[in-house]
Amino acid sequence: MAIEFPRIPLGDWIENGLNWLTSEYSGVTRGISGITQTGIDGLNDALMWLPDWSLLVIIAGLCWWLANIRLAIGAVAGLALIMDLGLWDPMIETLTLVVIATLVAVVIALPVGIAAALSERLYKTIMPVLDFMQTMPAFVYLIPAIPFFGIGSVSAIFATVIFSMPPAIRFTTLGIRQVPTELVEAADAYGATRGQKLFKVQLPLSLPTVMAGINQTIMLALSMVVIAAMIGADGLGSEVWRAIQRLRPGDGFEAGIAVVILAMLLDRLTQSLRKQGKG
Amino acid sequence: MSDNRNVKIRVRNLSKVFGAQPKKALELRDQGLKRPEILDKTGQTLGLSNIDFDVYEGELLVIMGLSGSGKSTLIRCLNRLIDPTEGEIVIDGQNIPSLKEKELLECRRRHFSMVFQNFALFPHRTVQQNAEFGLEIRGIDAKERTETARNALKQVGLEGWEDAYPRQLSGGMQQRVGLARALANDASVLLMDEAFSALDPLIRGDMQQELLQLQHRMKKTTVFITHDLDEALSIGDRIVLLKDGEVVQIGTPEEILTKPADDYVRRFIEGVDKSRILSAESAMRKVRSTVRDTDGPRTALRKMRDHSLDSIYILDRDRRLIGLIDADAASQALEDGKQTVTEVMTQDFRKVTRDEPLHNLFAMFSENRFPIAVVDDDQVLQGVVVKGAVLDELAQAGDH
């Protein structure tokens, strides 16, 4: 005879927990929501206020300065295509979400990553949490985001930050741990304080690795803000989402290609930043 | 060395156990167990056990041992890159193991500069910025540290390389930067952890010579770690020989070679200790320059300068050795208006014949600072033996 185990109501517990959080901390979430929304609107308006062509010139110039003329030409061609397809405004909205989500993620990730590199105990605590954050299907974050922050861009940012933050933390930790022992010993031997050691030796030497992490975070953030269209985030994602609902593969691919162009641009730009970091 | 015997660092009873329960390992050690048995019983490694030695002010002390002897642990205990398990390390009245974190930082800044085996230069900093590191950490203002670092780089022969990055330099030059970083810091003790071991033999010899010159000039107390007996013999004022975390013998190179403390040391120097069959002739070098008894002090000075000598032999018409004059005496003679070098020459140096056994020369060197003259039965000068040459000869004999 099989012994019947009662089904563990894991889902109910989580739901109760989330409900409790939403009701107890609604003030906090509303505050965060307000600030974030202001940030999004501000950046979005600023980018929109610039004439299309001037933004294109600025981006191309940035590509030339940080990387090379080839990337600049590619950027001009890609952005011109987006403009021509009439996807300029959604592209700007997506870019805004990516920039803000990445900023928030990096601001949290750097200190956490540094702390985890310096404390073995924190490292051991945080690694499974990061595994959880990264492997949980991205869509799942969207659901609790809504009761916290409502439908729209702020929820998208919340989900995106959680999903895209782990590589920035991981790479920061890795970068600092990879600094050769002898160099850390040298800093110690000359009587460096923890702060001096961190800012004069460990951080500068881990910069290329940290930048690689930030690059990963940006890429993940881009993929997530597209998915976040499902909870009402504006941008290229919502174009794709609409195309799916209307069964119009042509529109879907157009918006999809715009995402790819934006992704490549961001990737190459941050990678050239990283190479510059190597000196 | 013998005129200045102030103790700079006193190390007493120093032990280090690697493992979670060091007390247990030390108890077993006190019951007379050795490192392998302690490792078997407790799983802990007795890195250093009851180390006693002094470092004298201004001397170059070599700590020598094979890998696993604990020499790297020992040097890292001195500035507490590794925390010792028990024992004292006293520098200028401060007991380093009992310092609080803040005091420790201060102590490291004031007392210790370190040079590392694989250079440990900061790849993101220029040569100049690397040399400034210690000063920057101490909060010296930018102008002063630029100047000090520049001087240090000049001393190690790296003028003009200030703006290069370490990766653009050869190994030997990189270690010069490491040395400049240490010298710029002007701490009272220089710690050198296998500093020349990563360099190829030729460069290594050069660096050893330069270190000796620097050390001679600056009288900087230096603790030098090496696994290489030749290196230890040729640069050390004294040598601490370590084996399995214990001191086997402490002594001058001569003492180690002539009076090995036990079989281990004897086996160790076996290859080297050919002195009993070698004679003065084997270590003899050609005399680079001499003066005649009729020459004046000015000539003597010029010849010494041209050939980088500290002293010069005086010969008569038949090339017979009649005396010696050193640079100080010659300058004095010049000032006093003396006409010939014979008026101020000294007889206070040693003369031997070609077949004098080499090991006898050691004792002579410890009594007298001048090179030893080699003469034939008619007192005609044949050659000269300098201290380093004796040791070189012994070391080379060991290689055959």
Q: How would you sum up the global shape of chain B?
A: globular
CATH class of chain A: Mainly Alpha
Alpha carbon gap, first and last residue of chain A: 70 Å
* CATH classification class of the largest domain in chain B: Alpha Beta
The general outline of chain A is globular
Global mean pLDDT of chain B: 87
Give the termini separation of chain B: 32 Å
List low-confidence stretches of chain B: none
- Rg calc of chain A: 22 Å
Q: Most extensive interface: pair and counts? A: A-B, 18 and 26 residues
**Number of DSSP helical runs of chain A:** 12
Largest sheet properties of chain B:
6 strands, mixed
Radius of gyration of chain B: 24 Å
Looking at the structure, the CATH topology of the largest domain in chain B is Rossmann fold
3D architecture notes:
The complex is a heterodimer of chains A (279) and B (400). With 279 residues, chain A is mostly helical. Chain A contains 12 helices and no strands. Chain A has helices spanning 10-24, 26-49, 52-66, 69-84, 88-118, 120-135, 138-149, 153-177, 181-189, 194-227, 236-245, 249-278. In chain A, helix 5 packs parallel to helix 8 (153-177), helix 5 (88-118) crosses helix 11 (236-245) and helix 11 runs antiparallel to helix 12 (249-278). Chain A is globular, with a radius of gyration of 22 Å. The mean pLDDT of chain A is 89. Chain B has 400 residues and is an alpha/beta fold. Chain B folds into 2 domains: 7-270, P-loop containing nucleotide triphosphate hydrolases (Rossmann fold, 3-Layer(aba) Sandwich), CATH 3.40.50; 280-399, CBS-domain, CATH 3.10.580. Chain B has 16 helices and 16 strands. In chain B, the strands form 4 sheets. Chain B has a 6-stranded mixed sheet, with helices on both faces. In chain B, a hairpin with a 5-residue loop joins strand 15 (372-375) and strand 16. Chain B is globular. The model of chain B has no long low-confidence stretch (mean pLDDT 87). Chain A binds chain B through residues 180, 182-183, 185-193, 196, 200-201, 204-205, 279, and chain B through 76, 79, 81, 105-109, 112-114, 116-118, 120, 122-124, 133-134, 136-138, 165, 185, 191.
